[in-house]
Every structure is written in structure tokens, then in C-alpha cells.
Write a structure and sequence with these properties.
The protein is of the alpha+beta class. Helix content is about 35%, strand content about 30%. The protein starts with 8 loop residues before the first helix and ends in a 15-residue tail after the last strand. About 30% of the residues are buried.
Length: about 950
């Protein structure tokens, strides 16, 4: 269609001819808002665009002043007026305008002055354009740039901005701390100037990848100001303009020198320990989840006569004595059910068909890189030790009879932790049968946090520094529970003074310890220590000790540092050095040798050890030194001498026991007593041996004692324990835990009892104190909130004997925070104690005073006639507290705010306190230091959480 013939031709012609029509059309159709204002700001005319932009009709705004402008933007308008008044023709400001829906949007408003002939402003023509989206975008961009700068300047990493050619345009201040470079000194330099020459290609490749990947990362060494290089992990990102062209690059550097050093140290450590495992006398076996052998250390050839290749791929049970397979299967089931690692002793078939006793310690190894979990097992030759202990097990019947009938736990254990014998009482304490306990060591039954202290004391007994020790330690039960034992350990020595084994007495004091610990509300935790093998491994190169295992401390008392750098012969007995030398020569020549020598302990004495010496072969197969393992064998050498001392052992144990012990005949006459019982009762031995149990018992507990003896005589229980009171000469009682076991002769007939008396007087007092602390505030010793509510419920459920109502005074100590801030919390606590005593002194004996915590108290009045009775008591309390307090020589003034709530029997105690609390809140708001009654028409708001 011809444009000249369109229906709109007449409109266009009219616009072209009539200028006034042109103006009106442009004004009405423009998206900008045009307006004419009087000089004072009153609106005289506004274009229709105001309705499209802000929702207001022009008629709604005529004759109004600047009410559409956000109040915060008035200063901007004042600046525009000032500029126009100074003669400028126009001025622009960015302001926020009110929409009809109540929201504000940003607009750019330009005002032009229309002046009269004298130059005065006669009117203002204002053009306003909507710039809301633009303003929001600019604000977001500014906030993002500020955040980026703050993050970059405060980051521990180094952040730098470079051109695409690698020239540094900006670098964060952290460059000074991390690299030593002042930021201004590296600007306009190329990044490549600071990169290690060996890492340049990797950095260039990363810079090339960022052109397509936008983000790339890598590792490289960066030069510091002192010329040294450190490893950094870097990440580089491309920054582009709106059109997609690259503007710059941002790179962050993170110091990873410690990680790189750790990786290298880990690799070196793995190689060193691999060589130690391959050269130790113990055989190390790795088995898969199916129980088949995956790897065996070279020591298998020396110890068993089998090559590792012959054992790989076979089941572990194929090499065991048939009688020992069941024990291994039971251990596997126990471990699968979550049991702890145990030491097993069984027989392994040698290449010549004979069997060798070995001790196995096994632990699981976690899977890695997708592989299945495996188990690592250490096999140690204990053949001589087992056979020596088998000979020892057939004797000492008399001691064993007394030991197994004792009412407290007893055991015999070797220096390395193996149990020789345990009694029934110990089995009951530990929740295990005798076989389970003997399959473990006392180290494994000991709680890890107590093991270090126990080992240290045991080593002092071994070294002869002390004869015995006593400690409280924790034992692990199979159900996961913990038993506290009061343990007394004494060393039994041979004729030459060397330690043969330990005898230990264990009393279950779990209840006493937990009561004491709960009262103290703290417990010192011992540091967890790793179990170490009993063998000591020594690595010698060029005749000097280069490394020694930590087990040296347990075996001989030396720290590894005291041996390293010295010759092994320095610690040998002079008479044994000639014998030791040829064995070293044989080991250096490639042979494996075994011999026994005496070695110096840290305490100055000598102990027999059995040494296994073999060549140390490095990764290239070269003999570079000698690896020796040894264990202390005094127990094996001197086992026979222990048989003659069994009777003395029992007597020594009784004499040295910290708890009172006695042997009593069937008529309850004392036959034998130990010193601890004499001290406990303040009686001498002669007096006790001439009297009976009934002479030291509180008469009220005699029936308990008779029932105990009847129970053990009937055979229903091997041992019975009860609490009872013993009497001293002055009539004072001693609470004891009395354990009784039955004594029988060789024919099995009972002839007496063995008794143990553990003083638990303090433990009972601790339990009583715990009961008190459960219902009272520890600082003021007033009742606490739970006990207050309990007693209030009890009182509200009954009609009072006097009076008809009950009342609660909710009390707050004004300004406690100020006292704490000024004088310290110690003074604040003293003020609270003094205030509680003054409150308690103003109420009746039947009234209840409680502390709810912090600065809040409650006085509960179980019997009042009216609100006036409650007020009289509140006034007495206010007057008592008003007197100045003297704390640590300081005069401190204190006031109280009190809320009063009145209730009738049957009311809810929580509601009574809530109403009193609301009244207290009003007292605090009203100026404090006053008493206010609860008013339901006023006190409808809950109390403020902070009203101090």
C-alpha cells in the first residue's frame, strides 16, 4: 500500500502543519515525566506519563508539594535548588519516587529554571526519567567490587591480576607476608620472572589452557625475595568483558610447601619401615578377607623353614597344629563381632615336621584405592617361654587354692603382660571367664588412657626403684563397660634380685570412683598410647646404633635416644662381649645367629636377653648393616626358682595389701590379720587374734555378716560382698566393703574364710553429698528450680494448716552485671551468697528459698492470710538487703526488685511462678528497687529475656 494513502495520513499531515499539536503529542506520548513546579515546589502541571510510570493520575498530584520523593533524598533536591539559585540553567539529581503501590524506584530528575525579567526563578520545568534497573545494577556492581577487594586483600593466599601476556597489574598485600615481595615492586613485571625454571613449561601450558577452559590450575615453585623457592598451588581464571573478549586474568597462589615436604617424608618413611619389616626376626603375614596368605616377610625362611613363596596362596590353618585351629576360628568370629585385638598363642608346623609355639598379634588394614580390606599379623617365636611356663603351671597348688578362694581379684602375670593365673573373683570383676583373660594380656585389658601410668610404675618395679605400687585404673569388659579397680602390684624376685613375675590384687571400686568423680565433676584424662611389641629391634650400621624401637623403654628402661649413636657392645656385660663379637661377624657375613647375653638396664643392673642378629639388606640387595631383635628372658632363665617362693608370695601379698585382710575360722575367730586391718581399726594384731568378728562389728550388721557366711558355705556364691560398719575402740564407725571367700582343705572341706575390708567411708559421704547437690544450688546451697517446683507442687496439693493462701516472691538482684563488670565475677559470686543469706534470715523455717540461677531467687510462702502478709516479708527482705555489703574490703550497695503472686491451694506451680515473674518484670521497668503485685489486667506480656 502506498504510504500516502494510509488511514493515518491525515494525522501525520496535521502534526507536520500544527506545532502546538506536535508539542502536545510528544509530551503525552513520552516515557519521561514532564512537570511544572512553582519555585516553592507546589506542582502546577504534570504529563500523563506519571500514571504509566508511577500509577498516579495527573489530577491526583496537582497542587501538591514534593510528597512523592523519598525523605532521604531531600538533601539532593536542596543541592539542585542551590545550583539553580546560583545562576545555573539546569541541574540533575538521582532520587527515589513513590509508586502508588507504596514502593520506591530510582529516577533521574533534571530541573530547568524559568526566570522573570529580573532574573528571579518564576517556575521550574522538571523532566524525570525512570533509571531504577540501571541504579540497581550499578549498586550490585559496586558491592561486588568491594567484596572482591576485601576478600583478596585479607586472604592468606596471594591474589594477582595479570594481562593475558602474564604482566602483573595488581597483587594482594599478602604477597609481602607470603613471598616477601612488596606489591609495588612487582607491578608491571612478568609472572614468569618469579617461576622456577623447571616449572616454566607447566605454567605456560596452564596459561594457554585458560584461553579455552576459562579456569585452570597447577603446581609450581615461586621465588621469594631471599632467592629461595617455595611450592604453591595456583588457580587461574579468565575475566571477560560483556562482549566476551578477555580483559584480564586473576590468579590465586596457595602455599603448599608443608604438603610437598610431608609427601616426600612419607615416601622415605615407607621405604625405611619396609626394610625394617623384611629384616626383623618376627614373621609378618598379610592375609585377604578370604583368610588366604597374600604376602609373607623373608623371616619365614629363618623361623619356620618355609620359603615365603610356598606359603603365599595357602590358608593360614594349613600351617597350624590341628588342636589350635578351633581357637583361631573362635578369635576370627570374635573380631568379626566387633571384639578388640588379642594376642593368640598357637603352634606352627616347621619345614622339618616339628611344631613351634608362636605368639600372633593381628590387626585389620583399611582398604585403599578400591582394594578389599586385609589383615596384618605378626608371628613371634615364644617356644621357649611357653614350655617354661608349662612347667611352672604344674606347681604352687597351696597358693593357688588360697588365691582362687579369695573374695577379691588376684592374678599372676609376667613382665611382658601374659597372665599365669587368675582367680574367680577377677573373672567376675572383668566379666570374662578364665580362658578369655589368659588369651589376653593385662595391657590389653587396661583402658588405653591408664596404660602409660601403669607401664611406668611396672617398669620401676622391674628396675628395682620400688618394690610395689598401688593405683586406681580402668579395666575393659567385653560388653563395652568399664570397671575401676584399686590395684596393688608387687614384684616377686629370684635369689639374685631379678624380677620373675608380678602378683596383683584388684578390688572393684567402680561405685566409689564414680561417686567421687561425679562430685568433683572433673577427671584428668591420660594420653592414649600405642601398644608396642615386646621385642626390641636395633638397627646397626658401620658399628653404630642408627635406630632402636620404642619398646626399649619397657624392656630396659632406656629411651631410644640414649642408645642411638653408640655401640651395642657398650651396654653388654664385660664377660659377654667376647661371645657377642663373633655373632656380629657372622651376621655381617650374611648369616642369622641367635645367642644370649647380659645387657645393662637403665637402673644399673644387668638382665639376660636373647638376641637374634641377621644382616640388613637394602633395596639393592646389599648387606649394609645388622638388624637385631632381642627380648628379656630373665623369666625363662629363672622360672624354676619361682616355685620355692609361692608360699612367701601369698604372705607377702597379704602383708602388703592396702586393704584390710583377715583369715577367720568357721566360728568367726581371727586366725590371721594384716597390718592394714590393724591400722583401719586402730587395734594391734594381738588384740584382734584374741577376738572374733562380732567384737568389731556394729551390732546392727551382725545379721548381715551371718547371712554372708551362710551363702558362701552353701556354695551358691564363690564370694560375697556387702557394706557394713566396723567399730573402732573410741566407738567411731568405719564403713567398709566386706568381701568373704571360703577356704577349703585338700579334701574340699571348708575350714575358714578369707576376708577383705575396703574403707568406703569417704565414698559414702560423697554419695550423700551428691544427693544434696542434685536438689540444691552449689554456690548458695539453696534449693534449685526442680526441687522448688517439687516442693511447691506438694504444698499446693494440700490445704495449709494456717492461713488460706500461698504466695511466691520472684526476686531479682538489680545491677549484677554492673557488679561483675566492675569488680569481677568472684566478687559477684560473693554478693550473691551474701544476698541469699540475708533473704534466708528474713523468712520463717517453713518458708522455702530457692536460687533459679544468675541473679534470680524465689521465696515460696506456703501459708499466708493475705497479700499484706507477703508484702511484710518482702519489706523485711528489702530492708535487710539495703544495708551495704562489704566484700573484699569494698562497700557495695545492692537493691532488689520483687514480683509477688498470690494463689490458692490447687494452683499450678509453674503458673504461680510465671505470674510472679511478670510482676517482677513490671517492677524492673518501673525503676527497680521496688515490690510489685501481679495484676492480670496489666501483666499480660511475658518477661524480657534480659532485665538486669
Amino acid at each position: 500500500m502506498d504510504p500516502g494513502t494510509t488511514p493515518n495520513s491525515s494525522v501525520i499531515d496535521a502534526l507536520l502543519i500544527d506545532p502546538e499539536l506536535q508539542y502536545r503529542f510528544l509530551v503525552e506520548e513520552s516515557s519521561d515525566i514532564l512537570a511544572i513546579h512553582e519555585p516553592g515546589g507546589r506542582l502546577r502541571w504534570i504529563s500523563p506519563a506519571v500514571e504509566r510510570v508511577l500509577g498516579w493520575t495527573p489530577q491526583e498530584r496537582i497542587n501538591l508539594h514534593l510528597d512523592l520523593i523519598h525523605p532521604d533524598d531531600y538533601p539532593a533536591l536542596a543541592a539542585v535548588r542551590s545550583r539553580l539559585a546560583d545562576g545555573e540553567e539546569s541541574a540533575t539529581a538521582r532520587i527515589r519516587l513513590l509508586h502508588m503501590d507504596g514502593s520506591f524506584s530510582w529516577a533521574a530528575s533534571t530541573a530547568r529554571a524559568v526566570r522573570d525579567p529580573e532574573g528571579r526563578i518564576a517556575a521550574l520545568v522538571v523532566v524525570t526519567r525512570d533509571v531504577h534497573e540501571q541504579a540497581l545494577a550499578e549498586q550490585a556492581l559496586a558491592e561486588a567490587e568491594v567484596r572482591y577487594r576485601i576478600i583478596a586483600e585479607n586472604s592468606g593466599d596471594v591474589v594477582l591480576e595479570t594481562s593475558d601476556e602474564g604482566v602483573i597489574n595488581w597483587i594482594s598485600p599478602s604477597a609481602g607476608d607470603v613471598l616477601g615481595w612488596e606489591p609495588k615492586n612487582v607491578l608491571d613485571h612478568s609472572v614468569m620472572e618469579f617461576v622456577h625454571v623447571d616449572d616454566l613449561q607447566g605454567v605456560r601450558d596452564g596459561a594457554e589452557r585458560v584461553r579455552t577452559d576459562e579456569v585452570t590450575s597447577g603446581r609450581s615453585r615461586v621465588r621469594r625475595t631471599d632467592g629461595s623457592f617455595r611450592w604453591f598451588a595456583w588457580t587461574q581464571r579468565s575475566v571477560t568483558d560483556a562482549d566476551g573478549s578477555e580483559r584480564s586474568r586473576v590468579t590465586s597462589l596457595r602455599d603448599i610447601q608443608a604438603e610437598v615436604d610431608a609427601e616426600k617424608a612419607l615416601a622415605d618413611s615407607r621405604e625405611f619401615y619396609r626394610l625394617l619389616v623384611e629384616n626383623t626376626s618376627d614373621v609378618v603375614v598379610r592375609t585377604g578377607s578370604d583368610g588366604r596368605i597374600e604376602w609373607v616377610s623373608p623371616a619365614a625362611s629363618r623361623n619356620f623353614g618355609w620359603s615365603p613363596d610356598a606359603m603365599v596362596g595357602t590358608s593360614t590353618t594349613e600351617w597350624m597344629h590341628p588342636d589350635d585351629v578351633a581357637a583361631l576360628a573362635a578369635e576370627a568370629v570374635r573380631l568379626a563381632q566387633g571384639g578388640e585385638r588379642a594376642l593368640l598363642t598357637f603352634r606352627i608346623r616347621r619345614g622339618d615336621g616339628t611344631y613351634l609355639w608362636v605368639e600372633a598379634a593381628s590387626q585389620s588394614a583399611p582398604p585403599s584405592h578400591g582394594t578389599a580390606p586385609t589383615r596384618i599379623t605378626r608371628l613371634r617365636d615364644v617356644d621357649l617361654q611357653v614350655r617354661a611356663f608349662e612347667a611352672l603351671a604344674g606347681s604352687e597348688e597351696k597358693f593357688r587354692s588360697a588365691m582362687h578362694n579369695a573374695g577379691f581379684g588376684m592374678c599372676l602375670a609376667t613382665v611382658d603382660g601374659t597372665f599365669l593365673d587368675v582367680n574367680a573373683a577377677l573373672c567376675e570383676i572383668l566379666g570374662r571367664d578364665e580362658a578369655d583373660i589368659k588369651a589376653l594380656t593385662w595391657l590389653e585389658l587396661t583402658h588405653p588412657d591408664d596404660l602409660s601410668a601403669d607401664l611406668d610404675l611396672a617398669q620401676q618395679v622391674v628396675s628395682g626403684a620400688i618394690d610395689q605400687y598401688r593405683m586406681t585404673k580402668r579395666y575393659l569388659r567385653p560388653d563395652g563397660g568399664i570397671v575401676f579397680g584399686d590395684v596393688t602390684v608387687k614384684g616377686v624376685r629370684s635369689g639374685d634380685g631379678a624380677l620373675t613375675y608380678f602378683i596383683a590384687q584388684i578390688v572393684d571400686v567402680t561405685e566409689q570412683v564414680r561417686a567421687r568423680d561425679a562430685l568433683a565433676d572433673s577427671e584428668e584424662q591420660f594420653r592414649l598410647l600405642l601398644d608396642s611389641v615386646s621385642d626390641v629391634i636395633v638397627h646397626v650400621r658401620e658399628g653404630v646404633i642408627r635406630w632402636v624401637s620404642p619398646s626399649l623403654s619397657d624392656a630396659l628402661g632406656w629411651s631410644p635416644a640414649e642408645w642411638m649413636g653408640r655401640r651395642f657392645s657398650e651396654f653388654l656385660h664385660p664377660d659377654d662381649r667376647p661371645e657377642h663379637g663373633p655373632h656380629v661377624d657372622e651376621a655381617l657375613a650374611g648369616e642369622t645367629t641367635r645367642h644370649r647375653v647380659r645387657v645393662l638396664s637403665a637402673n644399673g643392673g644387668y638382665q639376660w636377653i636373647e638376641v637374634h642378629a641377621r644382616p640388613f639388606v637394602d633395596a639393592q640387595g646389599t648387606h649394609t648393616g645388622v638388624t637385631s631383635s632381642f627380648r628379656v628372658v630373665d623369666a625363662e632363665v629363672k622360672a624354676t626358682a619361682a616355685l620355692a617362693r609361692s608360699e612367701e608370695t601369698f604372705r607377702t601379698a597379704m602383708e602388703s595389701a592396702p586393704a584390710g585382710m583377715a583369715v577367720v575360722d568357721l566360728d568367726r575367730r581371727f586366725v590371721e590379720v594384716n597390718p592394714a586391718l590393724c591400722r583401719m581399726l586402730d587395734r594391734d594384731e594381738a588384740w584382734l587374734l584374741s577376738h572374733r568378728i562380732v567384737d568389731i562389728l556394729d551390732p546392727r550388721d551382725d545379721e548381715v555378716d551371718l547371712r554372708m557366711r551362710a551363702e558362701v558355705l552353701s556354695g551358691r556364691s564363690g564370694a560375697v560382698t556387702r557394706e557394713k560398719r566396723l567399730m573402732r575402740p573410741d566407738g567411731s564407725p568405719v564403713w567398709v566393703e566386706h568381701a568373704i571367700g571360703l577356704l577349703q582343705d585338700d579334701d574340699g572341706f571348708p575350714w575358714g574364710y578369707v576376708s577383705q575390708f575396703v574403707n568406703i567411708t569417704e565414698a559414702r559421704q560423697a554419695r550423700e553429698e551428691l544427693r544434696f547437690m542434685a536438689t540444691h544450688d552449689p554456690l548458695t546451697r539453696l534449693v534449685n528450680r526442680p526441687e522448688l517446683l517439687t516442693q511447691m507442687d506438694r504444698a499446693l496439693s494440700h490445704q495449709p494448716r494456717t492461713g488460706t493462701q500461698v504466695a511466691a516472691l520472684f526476686i531479682d538482684l538489680d545491677g549484677l552485671k554492673r557488679i561483675n563488670d566492675t569488680f569481677g565475677h568472684g566478687v559477684g559470686d560473693a554478693v550473691i551468697v551474701e544476698i541469699s543469706q540475708r533473704i534466708r534470715g528474713q523468712v520463717r523455717a517453713e518458708d522455702l528459698v530457692a536460687r533459679l540461677g544468675g541473679d534470680e531467687f524465689v521465696v515460696f510462702l506456703p501459708a499466708v492470710h493475705s497479700i499484706d502478709d507477703a508484702h511484710r516479708i518482702a519489706d523485711k527482705i528489702q530492708a535487710a538487703v539495703a544495708a551495704p555489703l562489704t566484700i573484699d574490703g569494698r562497700q557495695i550497695a545492692a537493691t532488689l526488685s520483687i514480683g509477688v503472686s498470690l494463689a490458692a491451694p490447687g494452683a499450678n506451680s509453674d503458673r504461680v511462678l510465671e505470674f510472679a515473674d511478670r510482676a517482677l518484670y513490671r517492677a524492673k521497668r518501673g525503676g527497680r528497687a521496688r515490690t510489685v503485685d501481679y495484676d492480670p489486667l496489666v501483666d499480660h506480656e511475658p518477661p524480657s529475656p534480659d532485665r538486669n
